[in-house]
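Fold these two proteins, one after the other.
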Amino acid sequence: MMQDEKKFSTISAVDKAKLVADWLEEKQGGDILALDVRKISNVADSMIIVTAKSLPHAQALGDYVLDCCGREKIEYLGMEGYKNGQWILVDLNDVVVHVLLNDVRSFFNLEGLWSKAKVIKGAGQDDTDSSGECDAKGDEESE
């Protein structure tokens, strides 16, 4: 049995958060905020908060993240809240992604809860670096 190929990518949590934030940006996720929570959380190393425009958009964002993780061989543990769609949590082991509708995001104020976290610079800020592209399902659009 060959041991050369690893089952999952060994990307750092900060780099993974930047990559996932870029994926969310591609699919028009709003107000993307990536946080380094290593010093204040024992649950994850990084966290991403993103606003979806609608329930189908929230579900599409969650689906896209999982599709891209599969293509990039990035480990994911699961997704919660998909059916309801108001707050979808995608668990990527050391990175947790929160996809929320605007009213839900305002109500729960995760930014306030994690205000002591360090913001991960350059995550989801459309810096024209195409290295974060995931062409899942080949649905690229010209801009």
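Now the second one:
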Amino acid sequence: MSFHTATPLVRFNLHLHRLHITPLIRIADRLASEKGRDVRLGEALELILNAGLSRSDDALLALGKRPAIP
């Protein structure tokens, strides 16, 4: 009998604004330097999401009311 544990990771397609790619790559590069290993963009994105989601819902919704990126 084998037990399968669910993985905490989920795959999905993601569309990012091109202005967000450069900062994401910069964070991934710095994260790789600190960890001493290669880092996938998904790992950097997870870090950024964790930081953003530490804000309150109202604070995040206020960010959504800002003008769109040109």
